[in-house]
């Protein structure tokens, strides 16, 4: 069809849809109605491909991957779906012809925030990559009634509001009543001797109906549409539940990450983990059998991947189904389970490795607890003879009254991977070292990736279009081809064009800040960006100390040179993470102080954008000049905003941590700003207890002055919070070595500021980053999982060869 025909047809479908759904004309329709009408048109286009994909999988008996994740962070779907369907440009043209503000229409879509940060967004990037490389992969998670809280700032403090994302219904989802599963909690379980062997008998407990809502995951430029299945908790039909019983049940899919600082919160969290794990596994096995396969064929037909330890109960749940419901023997059930399940670890932080109290676990999931006891016993027996009792004890799922989920995941899966080379190495050497001794072949690395489609082609259309003019469009399918851009790094006209695109993106962000925050930021200044969850190890505090350093220099030293910067933060702090919230308050007060001081603010401004999420990221990332990735080395498993920022031409100001190392290596060290202690130094300090924050404070007058500013009234309105930050750094000896890296950070920032003044040289570095970003495409990451862990086909290589 000619493009004009497509536009004409789209226009007709859109106007018809508006009338059919809302009985309004275009002129009278609200942006929300326009969005919903357009989304309905797009959904219709997806539907046929989706049905065919499902039929095709069933008819060919394709092996299916199921990606189990307690978080998905899709953001908005409309623009990404249009892009993948190849209809984005036509839709833009249609909207122009209709004189409709397309941006306003897209912004009427709610930003689906069913995740906290990188882990959830990675799951959604994988949902985009899988169909795009024609891989048979589905998501399995929870349809939270309320997503991650909506953040606002009042007097500089974070305030949390509920995220009522279903208020206007979700256009994309499809409820599947006939796929519902019952999930059972609590009660007592007895083992009874029957002619078929020991069988559990259940007494009491709670039945919850898990109802799935499916959303089509659209492949780019192909006919593949996979399924993301999110489960919602309801009262089973026929069960008379009181109001309070009903609310207990519904709370299971009520909200993302309930506060886990108290017992009831933790109980709910465990229930959530079992909820989507059990519903998912039951449903998979049901279909597997209905399609005529034997249980022994499960590992050949199905790969279940657990995204971090939250879905680890998949392992005992599969054992329960195979043993109790199908009468398999222990060894054969264990073989099937372990060959089906694989596990990605996403964190090195000890406190983030999940553990449950055995009492709580046994109360909530009594049968699963019995099975874990049995897994534990088998494990001890099998390793003790060769490795000794102490080793068996250290690696057991049950120890010290707790259930250790990472150990259970390592024992019960056939593959374990980390998410960046350093992280995978540290897993083998430290965190999961004992398991590496037992099963070295289980371990591998799969470096995270991102979808360039969302973060470049959709969010930064002008950059992608500019790149097309130089190297054609193949790189959009084969992201590594973007390295061809390196041939143009001496092309001055092209560098100028790149700089123009960056400036336009900065202006777009500046307009947003002006409109939403009432602050006019200087687009000629360096946009120095730190966007990620607020956590002590990510060290937003180090960035803040750098800001205070510049501020004090400008105030007190007439000769000080500070390159003009706009410091841009966006971050949510977990509601129960008091210290993180205190840091937000201090940053906001520093921002106030700086922005309202005419003596400095032609040189520096600080903005903390509220309610960080996927859509805000899509606005900030194309506008960034500098990407702050400054975690304590050895703490950030990978990071993914680093990759998104790089692809959009920001230079990394980074510690040698997570995937920063690989990004800096790919872009070339001369095109990035690495600083700070390396992992070995960090570990040495922890082991030798030779780090003294107090000594650093005493011996560095500049830093001394900066820290004092937090407690001597220099920064106004932070009496309590400034003191808390000061105490954590000095009294508590600075767990994350903020002070240890301070000097190196401010020196590197100063060098960066100088370099930025040569715009052409800077843009050349920016180009080097863009040109090296291809290898961080999630298409490659997912293909590597497919080849090495899941053993399912995809067509990434075929695309390469057909070129
Ligand atoms: C995380 C890691 O902290 C982060 O470094 C990594 O990039 C992502 C995805 O692998 O996973 N782990 C984790 O629990 N969250 C992350 O973002 N929330």
From TrEMBL:
Lineage: Bacteria, Bacillati, Bacillota, Bacilli, Lactobacillales
Record flagged with keyword Transferase: yes
Name of this chain's protein: Alpha-1,4 glucan phosphorylase
GO cellular component: cytoplasm
Keyword DNA-binding: no
Function: Phosphorylase is an important allosteric enzyme in carbohydrate metabolism. Enzymes from different sources differ in their regulatory mechanisms and in their natural substrates. However, all known phosphorylases share catalytic and structural properties.
Keyword terms of this UniProt record: Allosteric enzyme, Carbohydrate metabolism, Glycosyltransferase, Pyridoxal phosphate, Transferase
Source organism of the structure: Weissella cibaria
Cofactor list: pyridoxal 5'-phosphate
GO biological process, one term: glycogen catabolic process
Chain positions with N6-(pyridoxal phosphate)lysine modification: 644
Entry coiled-coil feature ranges: none
Protein EC: 2.4.1.1
Top-rank taxon: Bacteria
Record-linked PANTHER family: GLYCOGEN PHOSPHORYLASE, GLYCOGEN PHOSPHORYLASE, LIVER FORM
Similarity comment text for this entry: Belongs to the glycogen phosphorylase family.
GO molecular function (one): pyridoxal phosphate binding
Any Pfam family the entry gives: Phosphorylase
Swiss-Prot/TrEMBL catalytic activity: [(1->4)-alpha-D-glucosyl](n) + phosphate = [(1->4)-alpha-D-glucosyl](n-1) + alpha-D-glucose 1-phosphate
């Amino acid at each position: 069809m000619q493009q004009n025909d497509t536009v004409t047809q789209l226009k007709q479908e859109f106007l018809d849809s508006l009338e059919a759904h809302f009985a309004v004309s275009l002129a009278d329709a609200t942006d929300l109605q326009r969005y919903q009408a357009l989304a309905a048109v797009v959904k219709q286009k997806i539907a046929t491909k989706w049905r065919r994909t499902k039929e095709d999988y069933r008819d060919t008996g394709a092996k299916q991957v199921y990606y189990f994740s307690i978080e998905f962070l899709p953001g908005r779907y409309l623009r990404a779906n249009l892009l993948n369907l190849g209809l984005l440009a036509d839709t833009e043209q249609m909207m122009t012809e209709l004189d409709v503000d397309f941006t306003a229409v897209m912004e009427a879509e709610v930003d689906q925030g069913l995740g906290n940060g990188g882990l959830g967004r990675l799951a959604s990037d994988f949902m985009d990559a899988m169909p795009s490389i024609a891989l048979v992969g589905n998501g399995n998670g929870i349809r939270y009634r309320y997503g991650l809280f909506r953040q606002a700032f009042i007097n500089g403090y974070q305030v949390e509001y509920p995220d009522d994302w279903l208020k206007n219904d979700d256009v994309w989802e499809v409820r599947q009543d006939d796929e519902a599963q019952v999930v059972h909690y609590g009660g007592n379980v007895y083992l009874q001797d029957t002619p078929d062997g020991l069988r559990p008998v259940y007494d009491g407990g709670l039945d919850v109906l898990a109802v799935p809502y499916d959303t089509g995951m659209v492949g780019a430029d192909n006919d593949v549409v996979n399924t993301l299945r999110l489960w919602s908790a309801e009262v089973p039909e026929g069960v008379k539940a009181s109001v309070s019983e009903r609310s207990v049940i519904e709370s299971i899919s009520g909200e993302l990450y309930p506060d886990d600082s108290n017992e009831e919160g933790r109980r709910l969290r465990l229930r959530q983990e079992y909820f989507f794990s059990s519903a998912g596994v039951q449903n998979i096995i049901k279909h597997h059998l209905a399609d005529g396969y034997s249980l022994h064929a499960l590992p050949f037909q199905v790969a279940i991947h657990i995204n971090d330890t939250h879905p680890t109960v998949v392992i005992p749940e599969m054992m329960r189904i195979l043993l109790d419901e199908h009468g398999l023997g222990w060894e054969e059930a264990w073989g099937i389970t372990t060959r089906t399940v694989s596990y990605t670890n996403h964190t090195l932080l000890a406190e983030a490795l999940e553990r449950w109290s055995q009492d709580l676990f046994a109360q909530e999931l009594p049968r699963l607890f019995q099975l874990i006891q049995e897994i534990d016993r088998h494990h001890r027996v099998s390793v003790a003879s060769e490795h000794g009792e102490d080793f068996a004890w250290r690696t057991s799922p049950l120890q010290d009254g707790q259930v250790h989920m990472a150990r259970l995941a390592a024992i019960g899966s056939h593959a374990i991977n980390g998410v960046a080379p350093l992280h995978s190495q540290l897993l083998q050497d430290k965190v999961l070292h004992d398991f590496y001794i037992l099963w070295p072949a289980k371990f591998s690395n799969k470096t995270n990736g991102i979808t360039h489609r969302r973060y470049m082609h959709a969010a930064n259309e002008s950059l992608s279009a500019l790149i097309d003019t130089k190297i054609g469009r193949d790189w959009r399918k084969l992201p590594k081809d973007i390295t061809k851009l390196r041939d143009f790094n001496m092309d001055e006209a092209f560098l100028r064009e790149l700089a123009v695109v960056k400036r336009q993106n900065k202006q777009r962000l500046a307009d947003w800040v002006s409109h939403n925050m009432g602050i006019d930021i200087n687009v000629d200044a360096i946009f120095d960006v730190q966007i990620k969850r607020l956590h002590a190890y990510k060290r937003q505090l180090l960035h803040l100390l750098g800001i205070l350093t510049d501020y004090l220099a400008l105030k007190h030293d007439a000769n000080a040179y500070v390159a003009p910067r706009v410091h841009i933060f966006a971050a949510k702090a977990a509601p129960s993470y008091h210290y993180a919230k205190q840091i937000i308050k201090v940053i906001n007060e520093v921002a106030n102080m700086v922005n309202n001081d005419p003596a400095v603010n032609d040189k520096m401004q600080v903005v903390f954008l509220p309610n960080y999420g996927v859509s805000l990221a899509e606005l900030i990332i194309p506008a960034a000049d500098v990407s702050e990735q400054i975690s304590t080395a050895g703490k950030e498993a990978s990071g993914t905003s680093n990759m998104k920022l790089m692809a959009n031409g920001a230079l990394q100001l980074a510690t040698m941590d997570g995937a920063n190392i690989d990004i800096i290596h790919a872009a070339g060290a001369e095109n990035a700003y690495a600083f700070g202690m390396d992992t070995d130094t960090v570990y040495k300090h922890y082991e030798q207890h030779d780090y003294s924050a107090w000594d650093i404070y005493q011996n560095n007058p500049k830093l001394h002055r900066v820290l004092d500013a937090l407690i001597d009234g220099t920064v106004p309105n932070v009496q309590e919070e400034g003191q808390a930050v000061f105490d954590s750094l000095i009294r508590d000896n600075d767990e994350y070595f903020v002070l240890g890296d301070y000097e190196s950070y401010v020196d590197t920032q100063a060098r960066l500021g100088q370099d930025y003044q040569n715009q052409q040289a800077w843009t050349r570095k920016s180009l080097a980053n863009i040109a090296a970003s291809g290898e961080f495409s999630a298409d490659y990451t997912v293909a590597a999982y497919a080849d090495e862990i899941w053993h399912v086909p995809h067509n990434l290589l075929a695309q390469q060869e057909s070129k």
